[in-house]
Amino acid sequence: MKRHLPNLITLLNLACGTAAIVLTLEGQWRWAVYLVLAAAVFDFLDGFAARMLKANSETGKHLDSLADMVSFGVLPAVFIYTLFKNLFLNQPVEAGKFYNYLQWVVLVSVLLVPAFSAIRLARFNTEKDQGTFFYGLPTPAHALFWTGIFWQMMESGSLFGSPLNLFFMWAIMLIMAFHMILPIPMYSLKFEHFRIRGNLIRYLLLFLSVVILIIVGWGGLPLVILVYILLSLLNLLLARRVS
Fold first, then answer.
1. Are 185 and 135 in contact (CB under 8 A)?
2. What's the pLDDT tens digit per position in 96-154?
3. 47 and 64 Cβ atoms separated by less than 8 Å
4. Quick one: how far is CA 184 from the chain centroid?
5. What is the pTM assigned to this prediction?
6. First to last CA, the chain
7. Backbone angles phi, psi at 170, to 5 degrees
8. How far, in Å, CA of 137 to CA of 132, rounded?
9. What is residue 158's three-state secondary structure?
10. What domain range includes position 208?
11. Looking at residue 32, which CATH number applies to its domain?
């Protein structure tokens, strides 16, 4: 029975992601955000359970990526699409044909998110050396980044108190999407044990994440992911300097 437990947790991740997509389209955005957070927890737990129970399998490996494709590939694209649609609706009526063409370009470009997520997940499945670093921003981190922005936009119509700018958000979308497929080493958050030695960066990120979320709320998720990116780059630079 225990060998099936990680796959069951993975299916809970898939169920949360699927339900979140439906709820987003139905306008129930708060529940959608709660479900993507639950999906992220299940995504962490399935791998942890597989390692603790020594229940790793090829089926579980590919099932995990398929579930992630829904929860952290398609779902953030739905969030971003909703965000851009709202930004276009807030444009003045006299914006003209230019904004009509721009709207199509921007909305179609959202397809890069699930496309690059699929590439990122496929590469992850074929990586032979999955040690301290991954290559490219992990899809759950990318999804959580947009979950925080989506929460802020839907709750207040602003980003950290400032009005959302269409071109700024478009540029951020492209940068973060390409970050998933560029060969940039990102620190692995997988716990093999709970000792401080070997997990210092993980515990530091966990501590800073809790502080940020207590102060800012769920809207602080983009800051958490930016801290993760900075810590990954800092750890890489220190490792290379030592070597």
1. yes
2. 666 678 888 999 999 999 999 999 999 888 776 556 677 899 999 999 999 999 999 99
3. yes
4. 16
5. 0.90
6. 44
7. -65, -45
8. 14
9. strand
10. 2-242
11. 1.20.120
